[in-house]
Write a structure and sequence with these properties.
The chain is α/β, with parallel strands linked by helices and 210 residues long. It has a single domain, classed as Maf protein (Alpha-Beta Complex), CATH 3.90.950.10. 36% of the residues lie in helices and 23% in strands. Strands 1, 2, 3, 4, 5, 6 and 7 form a seven-stranded mixed sheet that branches. β5 and β6 form a beta hairpin. α4 crosses α5. The longest helix is centred in the first third of the chain and has 17 residues. It is elongated. It starts with 12 loop residues before the first helix and ends with a helix.
C-alpha cells in the first residue's frame, strides 16, 4: 500500500501583501525588528537620523504619528531605488502627559513610581512611505495597561538591570520584571512591545492595494 503525500507551498504574509520591492524598517529597536520578522516579511534595517524632540503639548496620537513619519521619510529620501519604508514610534501616556524614554536611572525610578498602581495608555504610531512616489499612509493604536502596586525593591532591582533605560515608560512588558508588573491589558499586546502587527498588516494591505 502506497501513501500519496501532497507537498504544500508555504504561503507567507509577504505573498498575500504582494510586496515586490524591498522593505526597510526605519528603527533601531531590536524589539520592532523581532516583531516584523514574525510576519515573515523580508526586510533590512536603516536607522533614521532625525531629531526626536517634539512638542509634547500636542495630542499623543499626533506626537507618535509625527515621529513615525519623520523616521520613515528620512530613510525614504536616501533610497536610490523604489522601496517601502516602515517607521514607528511608541509612547506612554499617563494623566494626559506623554512619557518617553527615561533620561537616566533616577528618572526611570520616578516613572515607574508614577505607573505603579495606575492605568496608563500606550500609543504606537506607524508610517509607511514609498521612496519612489513619496506616497505615504499613517495609523496608530492605543492599548490600556494597568500596573499593580510596585515595591521600592522591585523598582530598584529592575532599574539596576539597565533594561528600562531604552524603553518608553521605563519598562518592557516582554521583560521578566515588566511581565510581573502588568496586572491587566486592554488592547493589542504587540502594541505595547512596539509594533502592533495586525494594524501594520492591514495598513500595509491598504497602502499597497490602493
Amino acid at each position: 500500500m502506497f501513501l500519496n503525500f501532497c507537498i504544500f507551498k508555504q504561503m507567507k504574509i509577504q505573498d498575500l501583501l504582494n510586496i515586490n520591492v524591498p522593505v526597510i524598517l526605519a528603527s533601531a529597536s531590536p524589539r520592532r525588528k523581532q516583531l516584523l520578522s514574525l510576519l515573515g516579511i523580508k526586510f533590512t534595517v536603516e536607522v533614521a537620523d532625525i531629531d526626536e524632540n517634539c512638542d509634547t503639548d500636542i495630542p499623543p496620537e499626533a506626537y507618535c504619528l509625527n515621529l513615525a513619519f519623520k523616521k520613515a521619510y528620512a530613510v525614504a529620501k536616501n533610497q536610490s531605488t523604489e522601496s517601502i519604508i516602515i517607521g514607528s514610534d511608541t509612547i506612554v501616556v499617563l494623566d494626559e502627559q506623554i512619557i518617553n524614554k527615561p533620561v537616566d536611572a533616577s528618572d526611570a525610578k520616578q516613572i515607574l513610581r508614577l505607573l505603579s498602581n495606575n492605568t496608563h495608555h500606550v500609543y504606537t504610531g506607524i508610517a509607511i512611505v514609498n521612496s519612489a512616489t513619496k506616497e505615504w499612509i499613517t495609523n496608530y493604536q492605543v492599548t490600556d495597561v494597568t500596573f499593580r502596586k510596585l515595591t521600592d525593591s522591585e523598582i530598584e532591582a529592575y532599574v539596576e538591570s539597565g533594561s528600562p533605560l531604552d524603553k518608553a515608560g521605563a519598562y518592557g512588558i516582554q521583560d521578566d520584571f515588566g511581565a510581573v508588573f502588568v496586572q491587566n491589558i486592554n488592547g493589542c499586546y504587540y502594541n505595547i512591545v512596539g509594533l502592533p502587527l495586525e494594524m501594520l498588516y492591514t495598513t500595509l494591505l491598504k497602502f499597497i492595494n490602493r
